[in-house]
Specification:
DsrC/TusE; EC 2.8.1.-; single chain; Dissimilatory Siroheme-sulfite Reductase, Chain: A, domain 1; mainly alpha; Sulfurtransferase; 46% helix; transferase; Arc Repressor Mutant, subunit A
């Protein structure tokens, strides 16, 4: 289901994935681990096990609450799911430089988190 107009396409495994002007998926059902890898390459991020843990928590959060969390709720969700050592903003900033909540949501195939500039 398209929520916005397609701005550009991401080529992934012989499929064109529609992206909005900020690089988020237009159709959330287009997400796959391969799409996450392709989006991560655009961010110059090499996905590790730690990245995938966060992406899994994010996708679970979205499935439960139908929204992508901003930084504070994301940190709290990560802490609850993965432990207090990983539930810190510094950990997330190391994995997803820049605006961590936005970058992680984008790679997880979720909409832009509310209250993120």
């Amino acid at each position: 289901m398209a929520t916005t107009e397609i701005y550009r396409y991401l080529d992934c495994q012989n499929k064109k994935i529609g992206l909005d002007p900020e690089g988020y998926l237009v159709d959330l059902d287009d997400w796959s681990p391969a799409v996450a890898q392709a989006l991560a390459e655009e961010e110059s991020i090499i996905l590790t096990r730690e990245h995938w843990e966060v992406l899994d928590v994010l996708r679970d959060f979205y499935a439960r609450f139908e929204m992508a969390p901003a930084m504070r709720p994301l940190v709290k969700a990560i802490g609850q799911a993965l432990g207090s050592e990983k539930g810190r903003s510094l950990h997330l900033m190391r994995l997803f430089p820049g605006s961590s909540a936005k970058v992680a949501a984008r790679l997880a195939g979720l909409p832009k988190p509310t209250h993120c500039l």
